[in-house]
Amino acid sequence: MAPPLIQLKDIALTFGGTPLLAGVELAVSAGERVCLIGRNGSGKSTLLKIVAGLVEADRGSRFVQPGATIRYLPQEPDFDGFSTTLAYVEAGMNPGDDHYQAQYLLDQLGLTGTEDPANLSGGEARRAALARVLAPSPDILLLDEPTNHLDLTTIEWLEGELASRRCALVIISHDRRFLSNLSRATVWLDRGETRRIEKGFSAFEEWRDEVLAEEERDQHKLDRKIVAEEHWLRYGVSGRRKRNVKRLGNLFELRDQRRDYRGVAGKANLAAAEAESSGKLVAEAKHISKSYGERPIVDDFSIRVARGDRIGIVGPNGAGKTTLISMLTGADSPDTGTIRLGANIEMATLDQHRESLDPKTTLADALTGGRGDSIMVNGKPKHVIGYMKDFLFQQEQARTPLEVLSGGERGRLMLARALAKPSNVLVLDEPTNDLDLETLDVLEEMLGDYDGTVILVSHDRDFLDRVVTSVIAPEGNGKWVEYAGGYSDMLAQRGADLKQRALESAAADKPKETRGSAPASSAKRRLNFNEKHALETLPKTMAKLQAEIAKQQKLLDDPELYAKDRKKFDAASAAIAKAHTELDAAEEKWIELEMLREEIESGV
């Protein structure tokens, strides 16, 4: 076996009480593809920072081959001090590197290099950070959740890019398909220790279950042995004192071994509070269309959603997935066509804007709405502590402010809030974000047992294959098509992935644009100061409006508000209507300017 490029030995680290890492070992040789697996909070990101040299362990050694280059992709990149994305990417390169790679990778990832890092969305920030770590062609790439905030098109591009490189990889990700396609070895971080198997992620779950089953058998044998020794101690015939003292010492050792055993973390207990069944028809859309300015988002789309359907909506960022789901659920109206909702619809929604929650709010108050210490689940009160434990939160976290929760914990919180509301239709926008693999398993089981209808947006291909019965995908120019089956079935039916179809659509549309009446001189036009300023500030404005809508909606969700305080109800209704109007106008303006910018840059 080739000597390791990097090696950790006997790594230990403790933050307060229970050790986070205890005697961890990790070695990565040239060209190896390793996935690092573990539950939320197990220390995966911390371990990757130790590998990168960003965190110092309490104990142990770290060896790096002289001359080996390492690049680390954090979950939250730091853009401080950089005026453009190109400057940020180039700052991560070595003096002898080809700086053309920086601009090339930014282009491949849909960025120009002129963007102000302070105004980047989550997806844009992730793409800029990826360009920074890929541009130097390092010997070792350490990737912490590289697919977070990326659409399917970019995820598939990233897979191909990483597969073509010779560098060693260590990857943390919740995306099963991504890990299965890239990994060749698996390191499992569990209860502070690491285990390794020289197989990719596709073999991990079966191996993990075997390890845990063997561990359970060993603990059962240990328990039986302790019982037998205690029985001897109480009732056995005394022998030589020296032998008895030794046997008594062995019993104490067995008890210590049992006491020190750290059992496997509990399993999330996800269950949706179900309302009475809806009618057979949940929603019917006939020839609906929606445009922002001259850009068609949805064009002449029809669908009939029946009770029990599981529908997934996929597509690149900006394709209009959220707009389509808003129309199908009656939250937004189409420009043309009709939407008809069925009878007795009770809808629960999980959106992807977790920042709408007040970061100073405690975990318990976020679940109860600040009203007492109970939460209504299936029409019955349940103590908030018990409900928290169903979602793998500890009792002592009840008064924890949301701002200190990890991404996975915020994801579980949003699920807990959404699933507590009685429903027969679940609308889930990116439900898998930041969830660990075990919680994803339980979420899939819950959706499989749910008697109602599920409509979800997701970029997780494996999750889609396991959960949905049909997939709605964009075909370009506002055209959407429903395919039977999961994501893999959709690819088989359409014969192209999302990126290929988008390129084909763009190529087909190009001659039409060329024949248009726009003067050739438009390619020489530049954005003026006001247009540039609007492009930079509108995303923040839209985010504030979305937060305002969420705030007012929270007030209106109180069924007793109208009776208790009519003025407050009217004020909230007026405020949310005004925010929706301003948000629609801001989105339309931003799309117009974005299209104009793209036309200018492409020379159309």
Describe the protein.
This is ATP-binding protein Uup. One of its GO terms (biological process) is DNA repair. Keywords: ATP-binding, Cytoplasm, DNA damage, DNA repair, DNA-binding, Hydrolase, Nucleotide-binding, Repeat. Its EC number is 3.6.1.-. It catalyses: ATP + H2O = ADP + phosphate + H(+). Strand 19 and strand 20 form a beta hairpin. The chain is built from 19 helices and 20 strands. Strands 5-6-7-3-8-9 form a 6-stranded mixed sheet, with helices on both faces. It is an alpha/beta fold and 604 residues long. Helix content is 43%, strand content 21%. The protein folds into 4 domains: 203 residues, Rossmann fold; 54 residues; 231 residues, P-loop containing nucleotide triphosphate hydrolases (Rossmann fold); 82 residues, Helix Hairpins. The protein starts with a strand and ends with a helix. The longest helix is centred in the C-terminal third of the chain and has 37 residues.
List keywords for this structure.
EC 3.6.1.-; Rossmann fold; 19 helices; six-stranded mixed β-sheet; 20 strands; 43% helix; 604 residues; alpha/beta; ribosome binding
Radius of gyration: 27 Å
Low-confidence stretches are: 239-243, 506-524
Q: Outline the biggest β-sheet.
A: 6 strands, mixed
Give the amount of beta strand, in percent.
15-25%
The second-level CATH architecture of the largest domain is: 3-Layer(aba) Sandwich
Report the principal-axis shape: globular
